[in-house]
Amino acid sequence: MKISLNELQSVCRKAFAGMGFEAGHADDAAAMVAWMQSYGLDGMKALNEGLECVVASAALARPNVIYQDADLAVVDGQHMSVLSSGNLALELAFAKARIRGLAVIKIRHCRQRQLIMGYLSRLADRGMNVTAFWRHSQTPITEQVVGFRASSAVPSIRVFELADTPEDDVPNDGITIVMANHFDLLPKIRSEDEYELLACHDEADLLAARHQALAEGLTVDPEIWQQLRGFAAKTLVEASEQSRSDAGPAE
Amino acid sequence: MTELTNAFEESALPLRSPATVMDLERLGSFSPTRLSFARRLTRMMFEQKWQASCTQFELNASGHGSAVYRLQTPTHRYHVVIFSQYLEGQRRTDRVIAEAWDLTFCLVEGEVDADLMSAMSANVPLQEAGRQHPKLLVISRANKSVRNFEVFVSALASGQQPDIEYVKEAGYLYRTTAVYGNGKFGIADYDRIKGCEDFQQPFSAQMAAVYVLREFSVQQVEHIARARDSVRAVTLKTDTRRYLGIGNSTGLGMAPFLINHPQLISQWVWARERALAVAVSQLPKESDREKIVALCRRAIAYLADTRVEDEPQRVRNGEAQAELMQVMAWLEQVPLDDTLWQQLLKWAQTQLSLETQELLTTLLIELYPQQVDSLNDAMFADENLDLTPDMPLIQLKQILETHFDWAIHANYECEDARYWFWYQSAEKEEPRLGVRGEELGEEKELALAIAPTTQRVYRDLVELLHAQPRALTVDLVIAFPEHMRVIRRIQTMAATVYGEIRANLWHRDMKPMHLLRAKLSFLGAHRFDPRGERWVRVTFFQGAPLLRDYEDAAAPPEVFDDWSFPVAPGAEFTAAVP
């Protein structure tokens, strides 16, 4: 079915609130899903694949900071969705980068990492160069790198599979983000490495996808949509005679 | 937005303080100005030579069927498509929970082909229950003023003009009950149209759709009158056509907008206040004085013609008429010198009601179109409430103490201060007000009361700062994630002049009607007629030019721009342009 971007964002916001997210975090989580969906990156699918995890993460709005110094932080994602406290972890890194010029943050043990792109977009739009990196799988190793130029809300995205597998058998379920205040960090894969490019999205492709989504509406799975509306309904109060008395004059 | 604000600060024109302007009762006394969106629309249509024409008018003898109107701007083409249907009397209600209306309509971007027409005829009449096409920019619905409708049809069918007294009671044939834009029910997102100069301004597309509906309402009654008696039927006289507007019934659904869009509201209020400051800074000439006296006279006549059911509003209108007489006397007695307007405002602040003070704001702005009209361009905002996580907490504390002192020092503990809570009803997801401790739904309260939330942030901030004197804002949001939304707002709004409505929206004495009126005044609504505390009826476009006026090369510019305070045909109309 087709919906508008505003409908998606509004229903997601209420759905996250219905799951128990604090208001500001529901806003952010909704914006993260809507951002992906509007750029043709199927944020709804990414959300739906870990919906139980999102519901379980709802109350966990505070990131667990394991280590931090002036320009580095390590945060434990506690195997929860990045929608729950990823925003605050990124704001922590943003503050460090603004003060120190460059900052690195590692969010360990987190889920639904694709969805973090929506918040990275906001930080880039606020004038920060941002690059994020994570591994999707170990055998074979597939990696994703996402880069945003400062003041642009649209990234370059590369997903690639390495031909040679280094001796690293520890699954990497974290995400590493580098932020630089004054210089570009756009991803450019070294040509001498052997890899197979699995996905490549440049700014022009993503902008075209967004333009199309705004012109024609966003396509979403009706089942997922209904599920979200069900969570959103938890924020509503059943009508009563008292509430109806506010609903305008009886003719 | 920031640039505009800074431009003001450099210009050193004395703006009224936020404490004065953002007081809820004063906001609830605002009248529309020439910057209001209805006025701006007709001005823009005239200046840009928009063309409007009816391209389809397929109604049966009862006026049921469909009609299509084309709007051609310099760069784009749009269509307003209207579906009129029979509605049983018992189903006709202004309540938002209604499921059928006398007519439904929409504004479409581009051409209307058979497929789109078919999709619209299946869905537009369903309104919220339909899935709307993304080419639609606006959808809306309206119900007849049954009495006016029948009076008009009967009179015209019998070769007579309708008694104008009926229009004084209700200045329209139809009243809308909701006008939806920005992606509602599948229509186009505002993000898509805000790059298009025709409808870049918020609510400009909605105003255009309502404006065209006004034309249809007259054509429809004339059509039905002709069908009733093709020999004797006459058309409506031009001055009566102009005196007809479109009504609107509005309830609490409008209120959260003013809280949820503080940057936009700040720009709206800033443009209005800046226009007042610009007007007051002009050196008054004798012709200006004559012009404002003429406007006072017209406003008095308009108020005398305005019949409202709400007793308190009727009293306020009566007071305003009497006080405008005092203003005229004052203007005739005080010598014309360079500070006349400043003196007038100063006198008004101590002697006149808020209602009349804000009417004077409208009149002063009306005097200087060349100096103020460009402020319309400032009445939109790229809305982003962003965190500044590296802001030292000590600085955030100073911001709170400087810009939010009205919020952080108030008492929210007593019963009256916590009386109301806002919630969203399952019925069409409309906002409602409930009494705390008495009505269900408190646990699902909408976070609209900014003031008490700001106080909680302040208290937690002071505590954290005591423990960590060098802490940053990010430390506060990590310690208190529940404050994220309001801290963003505090940091963002501190950079604006206006924006926060200075009221406790929980308080027992809080009047939601003030919120409605503030927004309606910016849209350009007049004949403000509250129905109880939470509903109001207003009129748009009464006195505005007709679509055919745009085709008339001989029509004087004031037809398109000087139509505030409409008075009934036959009454003396005082042109503002001497």
List keywords for this structure.
heterodimer; A: 251 residues; alpha+beta; Ribosomal Protein S8, Chain: A, domain 1; 8-stranded mixed β-sheet; two-stranded antiparallel ribbon; 10 strands; B: 578 residues; 9-stranded mixed β-sheet; two-stranded antiparallel sheet; 24 helices; 44% helix; 13% strand; disordered N terminus
In short:
Chain A is built from nine helices and ten strands. Chain A is of the alpha+beta class. With about 575 residues, chain B is α+β, with helices and mostly antiparallel strands.
How would you describe this structure to a colleague?
- The complex is a heterodimer of chains A (251) and B (578).
- Chain A has a single domain, classed as Ribosomal Protein S8, Chain: A, domain 1, CATH 3.30.1370.
- Helices cover 41% and strands 26% of the residues of chain A.
- Chain A has nine helices and ten strands.
- In chain A, helix 1 runs antiparallel to helix 2 and helix 2 (23-38) crosses helix 6.
- Chain A is globular.
- Among the domains of chain B are: 2-34 and 259-381, no CATH class; 37-251, no CATH class.
- Chain B contains 24 helices and eleven strands.
- Chain B has helices at residues 2-11, 18-21, 24-27, 37-47, 114-123, 146-157, 165-169, 190-193, 204-228, 238-243, 255-260, 262-281, 286-305, 311-333, 340-351, 354-367, 369-372, 393-403, 405-408, 450-467, 473-479, 484-493, 512-523, 557-561, and strands at residues 51-59, 65-72, 77-84, 103-109, 136-144, 172-180, 245-250, 420-424, 431-435, 526-531, 535-540.
- Classes of the chains: A alpha+beta (251), B alpha+beta (578).
- Chains A and B meet through strand 1, helix 1, helix 2, helix 5 and helix 7 of A and helix 8, strand 9, helix 21 and helix 22 of B.
